[in-house]
Amino acid sequence: MLSILLNGDSPASGGFLGYNAPRLHAALNDFPAAVLVVAVGFELAYLLSRKDGFRQVAFHTLVVGAVMTAAAVISGLRAEDAIEHGDAIHDIMETHERFGYITLGVFAALAIWRLLREKKMALAERWAAAAAGIVGLGFVIATSREGGELVFDHAAGIPTSVLQAEIMNRDAGHSHEGGEEHEHAAPADSMAPRDSMMPVDSAAAAPAVPHTHAPGTPEHED
Hints:
This protein is mostly helical. 65% of the residues lie in helices and 2% in strands. The protein has one domain. It is built from eight helices and two strands; from the N terminus they run αααααααββα. The protein starts with a helix and ends in a 17-residue tail after the last helix. The model is unreliable at 8-13 and 190-209 (pLDDT under 50).
């Protein structure tokens, strides 16, 4: 796994225990967000309550969160080289990467600050560190948003052949229990039909569907 983290891998290669670079990045990138939120939360709890247990949890989770952020950034750089992508994905990927670097910079600086000053920090200095942590969480959110856009809006990390097969599978619909067939309606912004780029008259193409009323309903003209 370490070789994948440092050197990257192609999506098709499978990597170590199924973790190639993109999959490893997906597995790692949740940890910094969770751990850093805990670190900042416990630091604020300490400042408001002065309970030393909160301070210790905040300190240790901050250090762990900074290390996990570095691992997520490194794996993300390797994933960038491994996945198939075009200009649209590349532009979002650059923004995602930029926010990742800023997040790493903020929390790495905070971790070093706390390592050097933990036993000497005055109250005002701790509040300044907590404020910097809150700003850092803003960049965590921005990084996560861009990463989500890559995956959910552009299917980043999914090989083209797999994506094409999935599109065909969705077009075929599926059956629920009992054999009832069901097709999901395509969203309004989905891609155009692959067999034709000509516009379709929806009123002419849609078949008329009869409807019925409950017993006792007065007759009416449609």
